[in-house]
Amino acid sequence: MLRLLARSEVDTVAWDACVASSRQPIIYGYSWYLDAVTSGPAWRWVGLALTDETGSYRAVMPIPLRRKWGVWVVHQPLFCPFLDVFSSDETLDPAPFHEAAQQHYGYGSVLCLQSPLRSPPAFATIRPRTTHLLDLSMGYETLARRYNRDRRLNLRRAEGYGWSVTDSTDPEPLLALFRANHASRIEGGVGAWAYAILRQLILALQERGLASIQYAWFEDRVEAGALFVTEGNRIIYLFNAATETGRKGNARTLLIDRQLRANAGCRVANRPLLFDFESPQKKSIVNFYASFGATESEFTEVRWNRLPVGVKIGRRLLNLIRRAI
């Protein structure tokens, strides 16, 4: 039986066990991770669960929600690039999960899925998106040879720049770097709620020993920082920021290279350890990540709109007003 569960109805232990034993486990699917990334105002998540006759979860699918125009719509949270139908059953058809999500919620502004849809609904808009992955099971010398010429040159420059790299448990310098050097470039700005979500997420990760924060210092000033998340067979480059000095001095190249150097040659449970750059769709950043020799890994973006006509008209009016202000 496929059931839609409110967060309060989710059996957390059973849910997380289902994600952990699935064919494609990913940290974004765990209940505690979902709790953190939907902890902001007007956010929540519900779950679809396929249960057997004993009530055990055979498969689960998280549905993240955001309140817009007075209704709950499906929307991918920050720091959670994609989700999936999680199950150990290789024969499971995920289509009923997607159909149920789109029947229960008339609007999906964006839902990103790790696995491709076998039979997307006619009313949904589908488009591919990509992240960049680097297989770390090879030795560092082999990895470094796959850097392109510019990356090798910039790494040499970074190594001669005089950086001091430190580990930290304090995310505040990283958030301050982002606020001062990146936030103004994001369309619509960055609300205080987004920083609060990131703080909550980092705390949840640190409680489980999964987060690593590193800072690059120059002349007693923090000029760059990065948050790396390690879970299962994946290291995720989840968040980063740098000043102009950090960018000119290639500090982030140095921080990434140190992670790759420290983990090169590793496998986890007979699987290669992967470094996930969590690529955005901005070409310059994608090119930067690809310069380390990373390869594209595709996932799927799904959008749909089955809202009542009155809500659709109201939404268009609100968008027009916002653009005019």
List descriptors.
single chain; 325 residues; Aminopeptidase; two-stranded antiparallel ribbon; 15 strands; BioF2-like_GNAT_dom
Short overview:
The chain is α+β, with helices and mostly antiparallel strands. It is about 35% helix and about 30% strand. The protein is globular and about 60 Å long.
Describe this structure in words.
The protein has about 325 residues and is an alpha+beta fold. Strand 12 and strand 13 (about 270) form a beta hairpin. About 35% of the residues lie in helices and about 30% in strands. Strands 1, 2, 3, 4, 5, 6, 7, 8, 9, 10, 11, 14 and 15 form a 13-stranded mixed β-sheet that branches. It has a two-stranded antiparallel ribbon with strand order 12-13. It has 2 domains: about 1-125 and about 305-325, 3-Layer(aba) Sandwich (Aminopeptidase), CATH 3.40.630; about 130-300, Aminopeptidase (3-Layer(aba) Sandwich), CATH 3.40.630. The longest helix has 16 residues, at about 190-205. The chain starts with a strand and ends with a helix. It is built from 11 helices and 15 strands. This is BioF2-like acetyltransferase domain-containing protein. It comes from Spirosoma utsteinense. It holds the Pfam family Acetyltransf_6.
